[in-house]
Amino acid sequence: MKRFLTLLLTALLALTAVFAFAACGDEGENNNNEPDNPGTSEVTGMTKWSEDLPILTFPAAAEKVDWIDTTDMNNELKLMLSSLKAVVNSTQPRIYTVEADTDSVNWLESLGYAAEDLTEHTSAVSLAVKYKDEIKGAVIWDVEVPDTVNLASTYAGIEGDVLVCSPMVYAVLAENGMELEIVRDFREDNFTGKEDVYQYLYDNLWDQCTHKILTNLSYETPGYVRDYAIAAKSAVIWLSSGTTGDDTALIRKFLGDMEDGESALMGWFPEGDEGTFVSLASEYGVMVWASDIAENLPFYASATEVTPAPLAEVPTAVENKVYVALIVSDGDNLQYHQHRMRTLWDSYNNGAYADKFPLTWTFSPAAYAIQPQIMNYYTKNAGDNNCFMTGPSGVAYVYPRDWTDRNAVNKFYELTNKYCKLTGITVVNNWMGQGSYSSLTSEEIAAFGEYYTDLLAVYDQQGTGSNEGDGSVNSNGLLVDNLTWNYTQTGESWDSYRYYIDEALDDLTSTQTPQFVTIQENPWKGTGMLDDLYRLYDEWKDNEDVVFVRMDELAMLQRLANGMSATR
Description:
Layout: H1 2-24, E1 48-49, E2 56-57, E3 65-69, H2 75-91, E4 95-98, E5 118-121, H3 124-130, E6 137-140, H4 148-159, E7 162-165, H5 167-175, E8 181-185, H6 194-204, E9 213-216, H7 226-231, E10 235-237, H8 246-256, E11 263-267, H9 274-283, E12 286-288, H10 297-300, E13 322-328, H11 334-338, H12 340-350, E14 359-362, H13 367-370, H14 372-380, E15 386-389, H15 406-423, E16 427-430, H16 442-451, E17 457-460, E18 473-475, E19 478-482, H17 494-511, E20 515-521, H18 528-540, E21 546-548, H19 551-561
Parallel strand pairs: 3-4, 3-5, 6-7, 6-8, 9-10, 9-11, 11-12, 13-14, 13-20, 13-21, 14-15, 16-17, 17-19
Antiparallel strand pairs: 1-2, 18-19
Helix pairs in contact: 1-5, 6-8
């Protein structure tokens, strides 16, 4: 039945696409016989790998951009469009898509594009036809074996300049004047299922792919990060990260061929077991960037200067007060920067809570290379009340304790220090291991101090002591402490946050020494999360013993309380 429905849908798609094309012509382009927008086909540069991160960067985007909303588009067209973007945007980013169903943001206006710079399209077919001179062929996937979507995507990246097409989409393109040579047809291989597909990929294509990036992405995700994977010549797979089974045995083969501390796993994981996935990658020294629904990475990775985030005013003294920093996770997540964070950011900065209380946002410093356009928007518009610290555990999502090569871990720390400095981030949120709330070892603390030479502080998810205790340590001029409250702890609620401020006030009375409270919120609660944080702030804003501060300011004050200089 599923196969019948697939064939039926593709047949209907073909008729719909042909009708739309015939009815609208080049719908978003100039239908009055005027030439296309100048600059949209101009080639000005090529992709290149970052100097020291497994990140593919792109040349500066065109001044004129073609864009299309794919939210309600058929998956087969989305897939073709992803491969079109990979080809076209690799020479110069010119095609932009709006893809997400929720928390979707059209960033073009925010990035400085005016209406006259943008050409909207409603047909993926006519958009492909516009760029047909840049396409030399097609690779066909087998609708009977859907994992061949990933196989075809991998092959397209290796081949270059080809589109990934279902048989029906290929026919529609041909009917509209885009007759492409079929460079590979995976219907001819008679694959029996996913294991067969990915074993073939490993045996026959993997050695032709980059080993800097491996992309774990469902065949049911035709858009999003797929264009980036194709452009990077990444293998695209969809394998389990569990501890046993054929899937895990095969993904371990891929990971085992990648360089410790110099490679990354993109996309996400099938089972929903985040900890197992990140732990498995960390075992092989492979960084993780959650990116399965990251949109337009070739566009956002286009060259731009990033304005470093401004540091808070440097305090000269610390008083006997309770200092509270409120933190929003999940900054290790690339698509979060694009979608949910922007929704929360706008609600906070332009809504009822604007200028009410300081807020710290976790942010991956790798965005300096992988989506500098996005990062630059936030840092340039930060103002006085917005601050940034890293997500776990620095330049990428890793569990440092799970890395078997300690030299690779140290290299990761060096990269984190470098990119924090480039982006103006001064505080690291570290997550030592999966479900690992045991104390940091002296060796781990010493490594932080040796390699985080330009940072103010590291706050472990819960590593240097209990929530109630002060676990702060001076490691070679670096402050190391634990978060008071992180959102992975049991009992997440406004009352839980309130408890720790009350407790800090009691400790202030009994010890007459400064107290520091760090509360990390869950961003996936939606904008109601801001209501909880404001409620917390509102209860104590008139208490002279409680001061709400940015995370960098709290780190500087806590450094002073520990007899250290406020800055480095």
